[in-house]
Amino acid sequence: MPTDSNASQNKKPSQGKRLWNKAFKAIKSGETTFEEPLHLFSGEEHADPVIHKSGGRYVDCGGQRLLIFNFVGRQFCSEDLSSVDNTGNARLWLSEECLAYYIVKQATSQAFYTKFVNKRILELGSGKTGLAGLCAASYTGTSVHITDGNAKAVENVQRIIAENGLKNVQSYLLDWSKPPNTVSKFDVIIASDCVYFERYHCIIDCIDQMLTDMGTVYMAAPYRKGSLEKFLLKIDRKNWEYVLIENPVWNATIQAMQTEARENGVMSDFDDDLHLPKLVILRRVIRQCTLQIEECLKPTNRMPKRESTRVKQRTQRVLIRPQKAIVDKRISPLLC
Ligand SMILES: C[S@@+](CC[C@H](N)C(=O)[O-])C[C@H]1O[C@@H](n2cnc3c(N)ncnc32)[C@H](O)[C@@H]1O
């Protein structure tokens, strides 16, 4: 009979762990051509062998052609690997591609103008490409800030921005636990695969600080072992309202790709719970207020002086009565 320790030795690592080990080994060795299993965007590989070796490829997102790559000519030292979270350097996660896809698919619609055009856009936890932020930038032409807490990821995004000549985008370090108060607030915040670990949940405080009152947040993340629900349960429903879209625009495309792979006899280790992102749209609860002048008492000459002053003050006091939250009316037009 196997002992407990034998049993744990024989236990196969989970699928997520295997993927993570593979990606981590790849960035450690500087070999960044490791397979990123599913691509929502087609595009030719880069002709330059150095860029090609670093996973460089073009992303054809509906006419816009963006070049993305991984750490061309850069090596990771042990400090890089042990410091800030490296999950965004390990690979371009499907959630990021899905959020980019969401933006691109809407780019010609009226809804797109309402949601993204002329808005200040912030991407949090962009990872090494910030693909969703790049797509937003190339379609809106408005100011987009792509940020991450990991210096290597930011460095790579900065090089991608320069390579694509995108003038309206900037990338810098932004740690969710220390959001800057020197940057103006944003109308739109996007984030993908940024709620998996409990230590990531401080992202909601960062959003609170960086989002304008009427702003909107778009997040993509898979359920992944209940982690998305755990995050949503943490959100204070008095101040935030959200909708969880289980069947977002990218679902059909991913399903078609899986069917095609199966028909071609390609074994897929795609697991909906671990990999298939959902879309969360989040906004502040805004309460309509009515102003009411409190009873207007007029001071009279017969009142003692002290009383007359008190009455004057009361005359000027206003009552602000919060009314029914109107957030539902604000979120529903965004669901298309
Ligand atoms: C799973 S990765 C997702 C990366 C990218 N959005 C994607 O989907 O490919 C999570 C990202 O969050 C970033 N991150 C984690 N904790 C952070 C923090 N406290 N502040 C800022 N970024 C953080 C990591 O550096 C990483 O790039």
TrEMBL record:
<dbReference type="Pfam" id="PF10294">
    <property type="entry name" value="Methyltransf_16"/>
</dbReference>
<keyword id="KW-0539">Nucleus</keyword>
<dbReference type="InterPro" id="IPR029063">
    <property type="entry name" value="SAM-dependent_MTases_sf"/>
</dbReference>
<dbReference type="InterPro" id="IPR025800">
    <property type="entry name" value="CaM-Lys-N-MeTrfase"/>
</dbReference>
<keyword id="KW-0489">Methyltransferase</keyword>
<dbReference type="GO" id="GO:0005634">
    <property type="term" value="C:nucleus"/>
</dbReference>
<protein>
    <recommendedName>
        <fullName>Calmodulin-lysine N-methyltransferase</fullName>
        <ecNumber>2.1.1.60</ecNumber>
    </recommendedName>
</protein>
<keyword id="KW-0808">Transferase</keyword>
<dbReference type="GO" id="GO:0018025">
    <property type="term" value="F:calmodulin-lysine N-methyltransferase activity"/>
</dbReference>
<dbReference type="GO" id="GO:0032259">
    <property type="term" value="P:methylation"/>
</dbReference>
<keyword id="KW-0963">Cytoplasm</keyword>
<dbReference type="GO" id="GO:0005737">
    <property type="term" value="C:cytoplasm"/>
</dbReference>
<dbReference type="InterPro" id="IPR019410">
    <property type="entry name" value="Methyltransf_16"/>
</dbReference>
